[in-house]
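2024-03-11 09:14:02 INFO worker-7 job=invfold-0412 stage=load source=structure_tokens
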């Protein structure tokens, strides 16, 4: 498994603690159900081809370096196009789709945590350019 996957799995291990802190009204049964779903998700991730994940990680690092270079050179439009093409490539990758499928069971259990941790709804951040993050 690659480092990012291990980090996500480690972070998942602390979800019961953080969810209890955020959702003090979560019952023991709900916490147990969340833990069971997490174990299923972990098992599912373990079935994903680790060489494919390594390939994706290397590809991501390469694209990141290219985008950073384009941004530094002032080629903002080209950097944005490359980032969007890579995002589409990743969305269509079988390993990424498998990872998404692994996490589907948790989506219903943790909608508040996910939406609070992401800034998708903020019009100020959603219109940012890829070069603004470098």
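2024-03-11 09:14:09 INFO worker-7 stage=emit residues=134
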């Amino acid at each position: 498994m690659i480092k990012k996957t291990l980090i996500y799995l480690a972070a998942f291990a602390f979800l019961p603690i953080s969810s209890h802190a955020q959702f003090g009204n979560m019952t023991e049964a709900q916490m147990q159900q969340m833990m069971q779903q997490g174990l299923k998700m972990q098992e599912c991730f373990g079935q994903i081809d680790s060489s494919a994940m390594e390939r994706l990680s290397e590809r991501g690092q390469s694209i990141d370096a290219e985008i950073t270079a384009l941004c530094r050179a002032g080629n903002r439009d080209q950097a944005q196009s490359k980032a969007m093409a890579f995002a589409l490539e990743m969305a269509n990758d079988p390993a990424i789709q498998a990872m998404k499928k692994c996490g589907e069971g948790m989506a219903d259990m943790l909608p508040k945590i996910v939406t609070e941790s992401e800034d998708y709804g903020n019009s100020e951040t959603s219109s940012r350019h890829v070069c603004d993050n470098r």
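2024-03-11 09:14:09 INFO worker-7 stage=report msg="Residues 50-72 form the longest helix (23 residues)."
2024-03-11 09:14:10 INFO worker-7 job finished
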